[in-house]
Amino acid sequence: MMTSAEIEKIFRDEVGRALATLIRLVGDFDLAEDALQEAFAAALERWPATEVPANPRAWLVNVARNRAIDRIRRQISFRGKQAALTHDVLLNAESSQDESDAALDDDMLRLIFTCCHPSFAAEVQVALTLRTVCGLSTAQVARAFLVSEEAMGQRLVRAKQKIRLAGIPYEVPERDALSLRLRGVLAVIYLVFTEGYVATSGEALMRPDLAREAIRLSRLLDALMPGRREVKGLLALMLLHDARRSGRQTEGGDIVLLEEQDRSLWDRLQIDEGLKLVEEALLLPGRPEAYAVQAAIAALHAQSPNFGDTDWKQIAGLYEVLLRISPSPVIELNHAAAVSMVDGPARALDLVDALHARGGLEGYELLPAVRADLLRRLGRLEAAREAYLAATAATQLEPLRRLYARRLAEIADAGRSPA
Amino acid sequence: MQYLLMIYRSEAELFKMNDAERQKMAAEYGTFTQSIIQSGHFKAGDGLQPSTTATTVRVREGKVLTTDGPFAETREQLGGYYLVDAKDLDAAIAIAARIPGAREGSIEVRPIMIYSPEMVQARSGRS
Asked: What are phi and psi of A133, to 5 degrees?
């Protein structure tokens, strides 16, 4: 006997793969989604009364395929058998009963690459992936983007329409395009993760559900495309960051900075898995790969017994590697923060101010926060105060605002007591 | 599927070109056009006179109104198009990326609408 909660869990685990195969069989996202919903409803009705099928996914795909075929048949008779194209779909949907595991893996990759097609805006890629590959409900995706369910529903409808009308192929890209397209997929996964790691706005610092989805996705990708450094690197990076989750905030939801974290709260098992993956990624042949290098930095943090004993020199060096292979203002900022631990805050402040002068981080909210921290450590309290005020104005995340308020209070106290 | 590849580029930059540069560009377009004719993708294609020759037409309350110039003032102007047959969007993007104008300007790739039998009926019923 199965409860509906258990059935829903099976469905949640299988929906991505089932949908991926159905889309290939029936050639249409919406039809596949609707048919799978019907199959799920049938499962909720039948499974509690009978034995659960040995292969629930195959059962769901089979029932959904039959529902879809019924629908196509009805459409054909409605149209007077004109739609030759629909007929082709029918033939395709009715053929090939048994599918090898490899074919099903390919379906999942097809779905991922289609949702992350570069002809979609980045946020559309993320939304489509969360909805279709991860099986989140439209309401859940809407919550992740802080938009209404209706707005998100429309965005998803438009995206699926574009897949159909613009002829976005349901395929894994050819060899020569694969690396570039894979980079796009990984960027989408990392976007999901970073939003889960530090939310853009709102009350809560972290949204562990999004971080978990991102990790689940890259685990899947690592299984589907084994031996790719960039996939292993990203998975390692996310595991190592996420392992610190319990240490990163107080029970009241306040931020605990790395230097103040209780490292015994870090998830050691997850760190071990991350460390093993970093090693694998770094051992694979080829030039240094950005995610793997970032994961190596996270690994150094994870292995250090405390903040002071962290190998800052090596971390600064790894950021220099990153600046060479994938330069960005954000990496420059992180590099400056690492330099502050090796050569002191004055030298780091020079780097940050030079970056600021170039206008590289226009609108990047963490720039004033990093400056403020360096100025505070240099004892330039008035300038630090101004920078914390700028940082407060720049963020929409409540826990960050509280952190800056705490710093401002410390500065005010220091100003009162004779130095 | 069929796609319209619309070539947008800055006319200001185009006018600055000297004869040798123009000839080089014309030769590049010639080579490209030949290549997509031979590969079977080509359906149609033309260059357009500059947007200074454009007239925009509207009918309001039964009156024909004309304005001098293109519909929108933009940094890049429509300068030509190709109509191509391509397997899917990836194939169309690959063709668009080979258009010489893509290196300085930009190519808008738009799928051609296919009218289903019902839509044709609905349309003819309305008129």
From this structure: -80, -45
CB contact (8 A) between residue B89 and residue A166: yes
Inter-chain CB proximity A169 and B87 less than 8 Å: yes
CA-based nearest residue to A219, from A290, A277, A279, A287: A277
Separation in Å, CA of A182 to nearest CA in chain B? 15
Mean pLDDT of A255-268: 93
A396-397 and A201-202 beta bridge pairing? parallel
Q: To the nearest whole number, what is the mean pLDDT of chain B?
A: 91
Residue B119 contacts A, CB cutoff 8 Å: no
- Can you give the pLDDT at residue A127? 93
| Cβ-Cβ contacts under 8 Å, A82 against chain B | 117
| Per-residue pLDDT at A396 | 84
Q: What is chain A's mean pLDDT, rounded?
A: 88
Q: Averaged over A322-348, what is the pLDDT?
A: 93
Is residue A371 a contact partner of residue A349, using CB atoms and an 8 Å limit? yes
Sign of CA dihedral A82, A87, A88, A89: positive
Contact B117 A82 (CB under 8 A): yes
Strands B55-60 and B42-47: unpaired
Long-range Cβ contact pairs of A3-10 (< 8 A, separation 24 or more): A3/A48, A4/A44, A4/A48, A7/A43, A7/A44, A7/A47, A7/A48, A7/A52, A10/A52, A10/A56
> What average pLDDT score do residues A415-419 get?
63
> How confident is the model at residue A7, as a pLDDT?
84
> Cβ(A233)–Cβ(A289) under 8 Å?
yes
CA pair distance A28, A35, nearest whole angstrom: 11
